Structure formats: C-alpha cells, structure tokens
Amino acid sequence: MRFHRIACLASVSVAAAMVATAPAKADEGMWTFDNFPAEAMRDTYGWAPDQAWLDKVQKGAVRLTGGCSASFVSPKGLILTNHHCIATCLFDNSTSAEDLLDAGFIAARNSDEKMCPGQQAEVVTKITDVTGDVKASFAGLSGDALARARDAKIAEIEKANCTDLATTRCQVVTLFGGGQYKLYTYRKYSDVRLVWAPEDRAATFGGDPDNFNFPRYSLDASFLRAYENGKPVSTPDHLVWNPRAPQEGELTFVVGNPGSTSRLNTQSQLAFEREVRLPITVATLSELRGRLIRAMDESPEHAREGLDTLSGVENSLKVYIGRTKALNDPAFTGKLAAAEADLKAQSADNDAIGDPWAAVEQAVAAYRDLYIPYRFNQPSGELFAYAQSLVFAAQERGKPNGERLPGYTDSSLPLMEKSLLDAKPIYPWLDELMMGWSLSKAREYLGVDDPQSKLLLGRESPEQLAERLVTNTKLADPAVRKALWDGGLAAIQASDDPMIQYALRLAPLQREQITAVREAYSGPLAIAGGQLADARFAAYGDSLYPDATFTLRISYGQVKGWTERGQEVPIATTMGGTFERATGNAPFDLAPAFAANKAKIDPSVTYDFVSTNDIIGGNSGSPVIDRNGTVIGAAFDGNIHSLGGNYGYDGTLNRTVSVSTAAVQEALEKIYPAPHIVAELKRR
Amino acid sequence: MRFHRIACLASVSVAAAMVATAPAKADEGMWTFDNFPAEAMRDTYGWAPDQAWLDKVQKGAVRLTGGCSASFVSPKGLILTNHHCIATCLFDNSTSAEDLLDAGFIAARNSDEKMCPGQQAEVVTKITDVTGDVKASFAGLSGDALARARDAKIAEIEKANCTDLATTRCQVVTLFGGGQYKLYTYRKYSDVRLVWAPEDRAATFGGDPDNFNFPRYSLDASFLRAYENGKPVSTPDHLVWNPRAPQEGELTFVVGNPGSTSRLNTQSQLAFEREVRLPITVATLSELRGRLIRAMDESPEHAREGLDTLSGVENSLKVYIGRTKALNDPAFTGKLAAAEADLKAQSADNDAIGDPWAAVEQAVAAYRDLYIPYRFNQPSGELFAYAQSLVFAAQERGKPNGERLPGYTDSSLPLMEKSLLDAKPIYPWLDELMMGWSLSKAREYLGVDDPQSKLLLGRESPEQLAERLVTNTKLADPAVRKALWDGGLAAIQASDDPMIQYALRLAPLQREQITAVREAYSGPLAIAGGQLADARFAAYGDSLYPDATFTLRISYGQVKGWTERGQEVPIATTMGGTFERATGNAPFDLAPAFAANKAKIDPSVTYDFVSTNDIIGGNSGSPVIDRNGTVIGAAFDGNIHSLGGNYGYDGTLNRTVSVSTAAVQEALEKIYPAPHIVAELKRR
User: For this UniProt entry, which residues form the secretion signal (chains A, B) (predicted)?
Assistant: First the structure.
C-alpha cells in the first residue's frame, strides 16, 4: 500500500480531505500527538501511554517525502521502512546489468550505501497552533481572495519559523478541513541512502493478486540511513528494535503519516466521488495498466524499467476499485449518511454554525463543471513534470514569497529543487507511454473540439506529440535542469527545449484554472470546513482526530484476526507457509535466495500479522510499537476491507498488515546475511 | 455503434432486458411491426404509414446475425449496411499482403464477391403470438424448473414451425420481459458476400474520438449480397434506393434490430447496473483496451490484426461509460424513479399484479452473489469460444431437443455450426492476449484462493496458461473443428487438444452456475416480468413497445438538430467539411482515395445527418426510410446523449446519426467507382 501520486503536480492539486471526523469508536482514529485519546484507550484496554511515552516515540518517527513512513532504529541513523517504499530507490540505482530491485541489496559498509534520488527523511520536532493567525488573515474574504490571503499568511509563518532551510522544514497543516491550522517543524535529512533490501519477489510475493489481502507472506521491509555532510547522522532518540513475534491480543501502536482520508465528507462530496471522480479514475488507470502490462511484455528491459510504475498504478487501482465498492455498498454509505444526519440534528440549534452542508454542496456543484478541464490540463510523465516544475518555479520565484502558489514558497523550494536536480534514470519509452496515454485520455474526456484539447494537442495526435517532445527534450540530463533552474525565468523563456516550450504554452490555462477552482471550490470549502469542524467540536467535544494529511499520527489497537465468511482469519502467517503457497509461477514464485535458504529458515517464525490499527496509504513503513515502546513490526498494507477506510473505519473488519521484526531478523541472519546490521540493531 | 459481444457465450448469457416500457413520448419507441402506433404518430405529425406500407418495408428489412441491421436495395440480393458491420468480413478476408479493411473493396463482378465468415442475412416473414402456449408450459412452476419447462416449450415450437432449416429459421422471442412470447419466422440466407466497401478511414474518419459524436464525417456504408446455391438470390421485395439529401423536418423511419435495452428496469435492477455490473465492465474493458493499443503499436501486423477487436472494445467502452454517466446523473435517474413510482401507484388497487418489484429485488439480491463467479467462469478468445461451443454442442446434442440449453436446440444449431465451421483467420497473439487478460481479471475479481480461480488456472499463471493452450490447440484449423463437430461427444472426449480438454474441465461448473442463475434469478424474473408487463398494460393500455431484443422494430421521427450548450447543432454535414476537419494525423487523416479525389467530390453533398429516431446498438446499418418508403440513409450511430438510451429516451437530445444515400452515391461515382452498382441500384 502506498501513498502514490499519479500525474499530479503538487502545487495544482486540491486536497480532497476537508471535514472533521465523528466521535471515534474503539481503535478508530489517526490521532495527532498533541491530542492522544488516553482516557478512551484506558477505558477500552486498561492502559494508555503517558506523555513521556508519546514524546519518546515521536522522536523516533520518520516521514519519508517519497510518500511513506519509517523509524530510526539505531543511534547511527538507520531507518526501518517497507521495501515498497524504497523500491523506487532500488530502481533508480539499477541498470540492465545490475538490477538491484530484482536481486536485493546489502551494503557491506557505509561507503557502499547508495543515495536515493528525491528522498528526504523528516522528524517532527514541534507542533504549534497557528489557527488564530491564519483564520484572521482571511476574515471577511471569500473565494480566490480568501485562498490567496490564507496562503500568504501560511508562507509568512513558514518562512519566519524555519530560517535554517538546510536542516529544518516548516509546514503549516490544515486540520479538520479548516478547523485548525498547525505549524509542524521538522528536523530534515535530505541525504538518504540505501542500506539493505531483500529481493523484490520476497517483498512482493503474491504480487498484485495478494496486495491488500491476508494471509500474506511478504518481507516488505528495508533499511535506509540518514546522512549529513557525507556522514551517517547521530540519532540517539531512535526506537528500540525488538525482533519478537506479536502475541494475540497485545496492544499495538502504529506511528506514521497517513496520507489522506475523506471520512465524513458531506453527502454531496461523497456523491461527487462516486459519480464523477472514481469512475474516471478507474477507467483511465485501468487503460494505463493495460498499456504498461503489454509494454513490459515486450522485452526484459521494459519489464524491469516499467515495474515501479506498474506497481504504483496497480496499487492505486486496487485502492480506487475498493473505494468504488465501498461507496456502492448501501450498508456502508448508510452509516455515513446517518452520521451526517446526526451532526446536522445536533447542530440544528447552534446558530453559529450556519449551513455549511449547503455551502459544500454549492461548491461541489461548481467543481463538477471545473473538474474535467482541471483534471486533464497536463500530460503525465517525468519529463513533463520536470518542465512544469521548472516553468512554474521560474515564474513564481520572481514574486514575493506571499504571492506565490503554495508549492513554490521559500519553505517549499528546497525539496522541489532536490527533486528536480537529483540525478536519476529516465526511460524515454515509458515517458512516451505516459504522455501518450494521458493526452489521449484528455482528448477523450474533453472532446476533440474542445479548445483545451486543441491547446494540448495542436494538430498532432497524442502519440505523435509525446514522441516528438520526449525524443527532443534534453531534460533527462540533470545538468540541463540545473542550468534552467539556476537561470530562472530568463533561461526558461530563452530555452528552445520543446518540453519547456510546451509547459510554457500550458501554464496560462493552468493558472486560470487554479484561480477558478479557488474561487468556486477551495475558497468556499475553507470556510465551510471550519464551520463543520466547529459543529463537530460543539456536538462531540474536542477528542476527535482530523482527516489524514500526511502528517504524524498515532493509532492504537491490538493484534487480532477477523471473521471472513464464517471463517476465523488467524493473526499471523509463518515464514514456512511461503513454501506451501508458492506455485513456481509469478507472482507466486519464490525469490531465489529465499528458496535457496529454505533449509536454514525456521519455518515457525512469525512472518506477517494483523492488528486493528486504523491506517491508510502513507502509513506504509510505519513502526508497529508495543506498549513498551519497542518496534515489533513495520506496517505495509491493509486488508481488503480497509479499502473503504478512506471514508470510514470498521473495527470488526479493517486490519493493518505488518511484517514482523522477527521475520526481518531471520532474513538478516539467514537469507540476506547482514551481521553488521544485526549488530547495529542491538546498539542503544 | 455496434451490438458487439465481448467474451460472451450466447447460451450462457442472461438477457438484461426484462420489463416493459412506460407510455412512449413523441418519437420514443422501438415498435414491433404488429403494433405500430399509427394513431399517436398521426396525432404528432399528421401522417402515419398504413399496413401496406409497413408490410412492404418489413419485406426489405434484413437482420445480419453478426449483430447488425440492413436492407435489400436491388432485386438481385444487394444489401446496404454499415461499413463497421462488415469490417470483420473485410478483416477476415485480408492478409498482410492485401489489407481489404484498409484499402476498401470493390467486386468488379459477382464472381469476385467474397464470402463473409459466420454472417447470415435474415428477413422476417411471419410473427405469431405464442404467449398462451409458452406461459401454460410453466404454470405453477418456479426457478430452474420454470426455465427448463419454458425452454422446452420454446424448442418445441421452433422445431415444429421451421422444418426446412436450410432456408428458414424460427425463433421465439420474449417480449416485455415475459409479458409476451412471439414466434418470429425468418427467410434466411446463410451465404453472404462482400460487394463494395470504402477505405476504413473514410468510414471511421475521426475514429474513437468522434464515435458517438456529431457533426460527423463518416462514410459508414457498404454493400453485401445474399447468395443461395452459389448464385445471387432474387429479392423482388427490395426497398428503393433514393440518393437524395434529407430535408430538415421531414419524417424518417429507421427499420432494424435494436439489440437490447433496459428501459424501465426496476430500481433494484438499475442499482445493480450502477453498483456492480458497469464498474466491473468499465474497469476490465479499459485494461483490455490498453493492452490492445500497446500490442498494436508493436508491428504493422499487430496493428492490422488487432484493429477489429480494438474497435469493438472501444465502442463498447464508450457505451458503458455513457451508461455509467447516465446512471450517475440524478436528473436522469430521477425520471426513471418517478416512472416506477407512477406504475406502482397505478397498480396499487390491482390485486392481480402482486408485488413484482419485491420479487425482482429479491432475484437481483440473489444474483449479486452469483454474478462474479458467473461472469468470470470462462476466458475470452476465439479459440476457447470454438472449444466451448464444440464441447457444449457435443454434450447437448445427445439430449432430446426439449432438454437442451437454449443455444443448442435444433433450431439454433445450424447457425452455430456455420459460425464454428466457416473458415477465417485466427491470430494467435491476439487470442493469447484475450485469454491472458480475461483469466487475470477472473483471478482478480474471484481472488487467488477461490476454488474457481484454481479451477481456471491450476498452478499456472494466466499468461502461461494462455500461451500453452493457444500454442498447442489445433482448433484454428476448420477441418479440425469439423472433425470434432461431426465426431460428437465421443470425438470430444477422445480429443487430446488442450483447449478442448480445458473447455471440458470448465463445463461442469458452468452448468452448475447456469442452473443456479435460473433458479434464483432468471426463473423468478420470468414471472415478475410477466406481472410487470401486465401492470403496465393495465395502467397505460397496450400501445407500448417492448424492450429491444435484436428483433425487427420500426422507429419514427424527423430530421432535426438539437441544442448543445446553447448552440444549435445543424442537421447535417457535407462531404466538403471533411477536408476542413482533417488534420493529417490519425484518426483525422484523410483516406487516400478520398483525398486523391478531392477535386471530383462535390463538397456540398450531404454527408451525415441526424434525426430523432429512437435506436440503439444493433440498429447499425438500418435503412433510414422516408414517407414514400424509399431509402435515404443508413443509420450508423447515436449522438453522445443517446448513450443513456439503454435506460430511457430523451427526444430533446437523443439523435440517430446516419450516412446519407447521396453521399454513398457520390462515393460510388467518384471515389470508389462502381458504375455497375450504381446501375443495379436503379433497377426495380
């Protein structure tokens, strides 16, 4: 499970999550560290962590900007995360001759550790409430003006609070869809390197068919290391590695960064999801999946070079298909409707609330008209993404900090610069495929005669345009990107690179659309979201958790199976079970080293296990922590029922799937031997 | 627009259409020839055809068993239909060296005309009401027993009424979802040959992007000829070819065989469509589309060999995506809900009706559980379809006529035999792609651990199994198929052909599922459908049209544009407009002969035109007839609004798109010269 972004420019995207959640049921909730529901947990389980416990855990919890979670597990910057969170790094460090993704990777010493392009590790050091400041900045405003004022204030706060951009990052986060604004300050590590990874097939045994399923046999774990000034960083506040099997019923905490949820979206927002966004998303991604599957069948190179993209697409598709099912299940949607009705009833006498539901409905109605042009205003592909970032950055950097688009403020630029300039391989066939696909979908949904189709395509076909741009651009070369980044707007405007010219051609329309969306949708939602949050606090008190925002959260629960069509699903699998499930045929073929070491592997070692923790994509790689604060697993997936988790949590069915530290330890000792890491994991 | 079947064995499929329609609004309706609403038409237009007019037209109307409509337009068996209706025939007659689909085809003389594999032309000669007999056959029965008794009676009626199977075909049709059963007797012509076809690009100018759109520039017309005993048949009752432009507001009749509609499905059936069937269909077909697009990019051979399949998939997808939009449009579904509420209210005091809505709801609820296994119980691909037909036919032919599955009764076998034994090219890569795709989707939706997945795959992967079966089967050879057909069950059971063995392995499960679906779904629907029809007749009288069933219908309307986002869409395009729309890039590139003859073509000739006639897939190729009974066009598409036409007709927006006879005449004279056909079209 990944928090995976497809064809989405961060600065132009609109957050889907916007409303606060209803009172949480047992084990439900992705809680912020400054509002942990200790009392509720104690009521359920007779124990809850105290502030010291929470503070300690927070210091060891890591966010990976690639879209995952992780934890420090040694004093020397060693990071535990999922294999699927670093697959891109393995991939970017591979060649046809040396396929690290396929073969796995063990760095014998620090100097062998390989840099992960674009990846950055971040630890929260402070959370500050800035709600008053931000809300005051847009008092009395609406629409686009509101959004501009708010974003200017956020840019100002972020800039003022992080002066050392080399080691810190400031981010103002909108919680409860506008009910709260909090400044998160991070210690950041912009040099992250690869230390240890199993073979891809060991991590992805069962492939897409087994994804989001359990029982499961997956070694979805890897290690990275944070560096600074060319040296491993010191991380005395790391979590303690505890390679033991989980026990049925024991308490578990998952600490990480759930990416996004839309729980208690209003009915009109859910209708938009079900009626518009999800059908388009599933149809277009399914076609992309088909194109990729076939293209990868064409040669071993394509198979290798396309794998990372296909995995992301298939993972996303499974999520969106699961969401479609959830929103087409009357029993599930009935609960959501009942929750809205209850909140409305509770708020009926509260004049301060107004009618945010009607405001949201109006905003959503406006967004329905804007959605297709907005969604299809750019092609996919790494090279175009470079061009677009370069063009927007050049244009935005010429403005005062407070007038820029959110992704281009002073606090945002360092990570953007790193992503743009880090060297990594580009595969032209893959970029061409992505561009051709996305442009043909744009034409399909906009219509041939739409002016935007004509702007996107001119008189060329999607395939011709993609081929021409990908073949002729020089942006695959990091030096070319650096020259354009350093040269600013003048260099961009003078560039004869066709991809840059293309991005320049599209930019004015994209800007118009950003303004239109803010005016009719995001602006109104900022106000309505605040009102809905107020309604919720008034009705249910303030022991609530906000929708996920890819910021640090903690979820509590217990190791527990569930009942599937009358059958009890046990809490865990064993490593030995892998050999029984293997058919010899992909994706149920054994990883070679796994197979070769069958005699050495203790078949009874606990492999993967389930717990009731409430997580979602972005939580991948999160440490699973016991009540003593030690790490006993890394969360890597949810079961199939958890796919509705974007909209609501069902404790009887939703489960987190984690790989146990016991299995990782077994792999470190017997399959992918790394005694130096075993030793390092014992250091305190 | 096509009535296209994807991966669907006729005998195992369940008809979706089952309920009668509400009282028709102006121009709405696909009327049977024995119940034309002359009075209503006269009220609207001041004129309506009399019985002599209808009888004459019926005699010239042709059904093509490939899934299209057509008409006789000369006394020598010449048939007008769409190009897209005979694209498969062009394709089956092509080789890499001679691509008839691409280049078009003109037979200089009869002896050059090329046989179309699997194609049969049929003309209705008699319609007999057999409702009493059929209903009596299952009185007091339910579920599977009901379905068996009904099917036995139908087989008996068909067999008794068509003793000369070489020239006649009998088919009992279920109308109004069980309200009426009618015996259709056809004069059949099982030897249909290719006479004239334009270049593919002239017919498909604008390709998938322009499909279901208007203005349109498409020469979607072709000619076939019916043969018997090696000679063109005599068709004195042909319609009269009238190569003139349509006039705004003039009356038009479309006479053909609309394939299937689900208008006034109950709310529970619509919910099933929206929540289950359509999402799965769109997701899986989109992936197939992607696989095909990429595979066709691999070589000119693949591009040629895959085109027919891709066209079908893209056409179907556009239909299903359009239906999804319609069922996600509250304004549209609100009307359907209101119609159901009205019928319920009108029936409230009618004790004879009972509560068929509840019965349908219960049947649909049961079908929801059966649907996924039933849908995914077989792979796609021509070779597997051969194997399955051979296996089922061998098994069924050993039983008495009345005990066989519907597709295998004595009246059905001749067309099945023809489809099985006609020689045509098979492309192994394409069959492998289709099988691999469909098996991987089966595993995806069933789950890896489902017993049906294991039955379908054994321990092989979808791709391995597909490759092994396609590579090793001999069923591409018509002689092998003939030997197995002639050899019957003994030959089938003795066969070591792996595809036959595979089909044998799957057959028991498929039979179990057919029985289960009849028991819980089709059986109950047969009764409820009859009750709903009775309710409708009681409430609205009997001037109603039944849902489409790929049987002969007539729709009346007028040549008329519509208003699109405030703009008037004119009634017609001109041939000259094509040159303005052409970009030079596929699919907006001019067909070579079309381009080469630009100077000769009269740019003012009416090309394609729209009318308010109510049609749907299966109507493709239908003659558009004026009030004098002469042919002025061939219907080939609906506009984008007509995609909701499966569920309901909206006269303000839904339009039929036809190619004018004037344009076809211009092409016959100036682009693809065929003076002998021009002369033949003048003969009476």
Answer: 1-26
Cβ <8 Å between A206 and B461 = no
Q: Look up residue B29 and give its amino acid.
A: G
Q: Which of A298, A461, A586 sits opposite B586 (nearest CB)?
A: A461
> pLDDT tens digits, residue range B141-196?
999 999 999 999 999 999 999 999 999 999 999 999 999 999 999 999 999 999 99
Owner of token pair 């409905």: A361
Angle between helices A382-397 and A498-517 (to 10 degrees): 70
Which of the residues A287, A313, A453 would you substitute to probe the B interface, choosing the one with the greatest number of B C-beta atoms within 10 Å?
A287
Query: Tell me, what's the pLDDT at B560?
Result: 98
Query: A202-234 pLDDT, tens per residue?
Result: 999 999 999 999 999 999 999 999 999 999 999
Chain pair A-B, CB pairs under 8 angstroms: 112
Are B80 and B144 in contact by the 8 Å Cβ rule? The answer is no
By CB neighbour count within 10 A (0-12 exposed, 13-18 middle, 19+ buried), where does B490 fall? exposed
Tell me whether residues B279 and A275 touch, CB distance under 8 A: no
**How far apart are the C-alpha atoms of B91 and B304, rounded to whole Å?**
8
The pTM (predicted TM-score) of the whole model is 0.94
The whole-angstrom distance between A290's CA and the closest CA on chain B is 4
Test mutation, A293, A320, A333, A641, chain B, max B CBs within 10 A: A293
Type of residue found at A152: A
Alpha helices of B241-355 — where are they, by DSSP H?
Answer: 267-272, 278-296, 300-327, 330-347
Burial bucket for residue A480 (CB in 10 Å: 0-12, 13-18, 19+): middle
Q: Residues B114-136: what's their mean pLDDT?
A: 97
pLDDT tens-digit readout, A591-610: 999 999 999 999 999 999 99
How many angstroms separate the Cα of B205 from the Cα of each of B4, B554, B574, B592, B658? 20, 28, 14, 12, 14
Residues of B in contact with A584 (CB under 8 A): 459
User: Where are the domains positioned within chain A?
Assistant: 267-540
Are A282 and B287 in contact (CB < 8 Å)?
Answer: no
Backbone φ, ψ for residue A487 (5° rounding) = -75, -15
Token look-up 């999946």 returns A289
Rounded to whole angstroms, the Cα distance separating B639 from B561 reads 11
